Each structure stands twice: as C-alpha cells, then as structure tokens.
C-alpha cells in the first residue's frame, strides 16, 4: 500500500481526476471519486450498474450510494488511490471509526454496503477479492422495535381531534386510518391510486404495493371505509380511477391538487395533527403500523395473522412491533411504593 508524502485529510474531496456519471435513478449527475475512476471505464460502469440495476428500492439505493461514496472518499483521504489497495484492515479501520460516532444498525448498514458493492466488483472482475468479507460488524440483537406507539386512548384522541370540516381534514383522517387499520407502510399508502380502493363482494378492499414489490390486499375496516368514502366524495375523485388516491393540498390549504402526497408530506401532517391533539409521543408515519399491530394483538389477535396482515416475511419481524408487554412492565413498576 502506498502513501503520498502529505496525504489529504479524511473526507477531503476527490482530486480533479473525478468524472461525471450518466444519470442514476437516484441522482441526476454524480462525481465519481478518483479511486474508482482510476480503475478504468469498466469499474465505473460496474459501479453504476450496481446502484442502477441491482437495488430497486429508491430509499435503499440512496442510502447505499451515500455509504459507498463516503467510504471511497475516506480511503482517498488516507492515501489509498487504487481499489486493489483496499485491504480487510482498511475496511476494519473504517468500521472501527464509525462505531465511535454512529449507531450499531448504521454501522452494519455501511458494512453491508461495502461488502455487497465489492461482491459486485469481484464478479465483474474489477477487483480480485472482496476486502470486506473477513470484517465483522458490531453485534446488535433487537428484540423490540423503537418505533413510538400510541396508546388506545391517544389513538382515539388523535382521530377525534380531526374535525372533518374541509376536504384536507378528511384526507388527513383517511391517510392515518389507512396506515392504522391495514398495518401498511406509508410508502404503500401514498402510491395508491383511486382504483386501488375497490369493492370485492360486499366490502371495500385496499390494494397496496408493499416493500419488495409485493402486492398486498387488505379488506377495509368499517371505520376506514367510512373515512375513505367521506374523503373520496368530498375530493370528487371517484371518477379519476388512475389518479392518486391521496393528494397534496393547494397552497391555500382549501383544496387538493392532482399530485400525490409524498412520505415527507404525510410525516409533516402527522406531526402537525399530533401537536394539535396534545399528543406528546414523538410519532411518525411508521408509528401507525406498530400501533395497529399492537392494538390487534392486545385484542386477542394472533401473531400469525398479524404477520399475514402486515405482509412480513418472518413472524420475528412482526414481533418487533408488538408492545403488548409494555403495559405489564408499567403495572409492575407501580408496585414499588414511595
């Protein structure tokens, strides 16, 4: 491994030999670090193909691309200017540094990024071996999720605080209800079209495009059906079958546009509604997935059915959302007399 007489500081920008990549799905243009550009056109092409073709989820792609660029910049900052000079000890040193400033799940994601990227480069014959294979990440065992969950009283308070006066009020109530009653991720809810809320037999159903490309269908709870029907009627979008179901509000906030809500739009709406309802729990979009699952299990629902309803591949994942034991812990704590 070679080192220049005066190596740049960690995180220093790539030298002028960097090139501009064609558009990636997650970035219009991207400056490639010199360490990658110096490996040749095949290496650059292979790098682009990994993010453009191998990773379909836009959020995962964005995170992994950021992690990869950060690692390569870190290597350059320590005088490493060729991919073949990246050794297991290099990756280990990087991971060791991240452990001091990042959470264990974040460190594990960085290591996974490096490992999977170099696997792709090895199969493309860009580098001979994967330097990350021998590196172990920090141990992190999760038995309970960290997503904030609302109590039944808080859930009821939130719904009752949204007076269905305007079409935006009815939209907000319907969005929250869709996540709570179907256990759906916010990404699946905001991508629904009007036609994805459809009749099957005597009931209305929701057709959701969940994580991993899974199409998941759920019958609408009678309350959700009530809220959705009121919203669709008020919005006047029943005939626009291919249009987005949940739409952004106009600048004045007195109507809706033809554009779909984004996950960020929903997050801001939830925080605004929670503050107005006087809810102190720092909830977000995912809170309603966890709240719905916990509520279902508290009322004698089964873990097996909760897994099916949440479209989880493993019951262990569903169990992370189960907070039914939290109340038992609080009850026991109150036995301590002061």
How would you characterize this protein structure?
The protein is mostly helical and 338 residues long. It has helices spanning 34-37, 41-54, 58-77, 88-99, 104-123, 152-161, 167-182, 186-190, 222-235, 263-276, 287-298, 303-310, 315-320, 324-333, and strands at residues 19-20, 31-32, 197-200, 203-209, 215-219, 247-249, 256-260. Helix 7 runs antiparallel to helix 9 (222-235) and helix 7 (167-182) crosses helix 11 (287-298). The N and C termini lie far apart (64 Å). Mean pLDDT is 85; it is low at 1-23.
Topology:
Blueprint: E1 19-20, E2 31-32, H1 34-37, H2 41-54, H3 58-77, H4 88-99, H5 104-123, H6 152-161, H7 167-182, H8 186-190, E3 197-200, E4 203-209, E5 215-219, H9 222-235, E6 247-249, E7 256-260, H10 263-276, H11 287-298, H12 303-310, H13 315-320, H14 324-333
Antiparallel strand pairs: 1-2, 3-4, 4-5, 6-7
Helix pairs in contact: 3-5, 4-5, 7-9, 7-11
